Structure formats: C-alpha cells, structure tokens
Amino acid sequence: MPIEILPHLSIPENEIEITYILASGPGGQNVNKVATAAQLRFDTVRASTLPHRIREKLREIAGQRITQSGVIVLTGRRFRSQQRNREDVLARLADLIRAAAHKPTFRVPTRPSRGAKQRRLDGKSRQSALKRSRQARHDD
C-alpha cells in the first residue's frame, strides 16, 4: 500500500525500510525488553517515484538527517509503542517531502510609487520637526 504524500505523489512501501531499535526514556521495564523506537531509512537516490527537483530539494532541507549516499534516516522514539513511533516517522518523512515539493510563488519585484516615496519623506520631515521641537533651547 503506497504512502500518500500529495494528491499526485505517493511512495511505495518497498522504498521505505523501517527497523525497530531499543529506545531510552519512558516505558518502565518495557524499555529494556522491547525495541519500540522506529528507525526509518529512505533512499532518495533509488526512489523512482520522486521527481529530480524534489530529490535535490530534499538533499538541501534534510540537513543532518541525510547521509552522504543520499539515505534519509529518521528515528522516532517519542511514544511507548512501536506502532505510534512507526506512524510518527512516516508522518515526518511525508512532511519533509511535502516541504521539498513546495514551490515558492514567483514574486515580481516592484518599485515604490512616487506618492509612496513622498508620503515616506513627509513622515520623516514630520518626525524630525517633532523631535526638533522637543530639544532644549540654548540661549548664548
């Protein structure tokens, strides 16, 4: 069953590898016996479903979570159960890919109008006059 990222983008489960490791933190004796922390590995180089642009953006925004060979490694140990930690790392991977898929809107650079420049200068003059009127007068 593929993991839905965006309406037009999903990742097959066979491209994601999840292993379970021992977790520290809350859980009592269960922490010492059961591997509840989920560690997700997603190879961006071999991911056939990801467009090249998203792959490159993932490399930029993943930071320390990506290895030299292009494998994203996420560890989830916030919860006490394997299932919730598994869902957590899958959601975090989906969020990371959504962030990489986001295209910033193109901004057309504009210049301030003549009226805007005049209003700015008038405001500066008014402020300057106000401050000048507050100064103490020195008679020589």
Automatic annotation (TrEMBL):
Region ranges (Disordered): 104-140
UniProt biased composition (Basic residues): 129-140
Higher taxonomy: Bacteria, Pseudomonadati, Pseudomonadota, Alphaproteobacteria, Acetobacterales
UniProt protein name: Peptide chain release factor I
GO annotation, biological process: rescue of stalled ribosome
Coiled coil ranges: none
Gene3D superfamilies, per database record: 3.30.160.20
Xref: PANTHER family: PEPTIDYL-TRNA HYDROLASE ARFB
InterPro entries xrefs: Pep_chain_release_fac_I
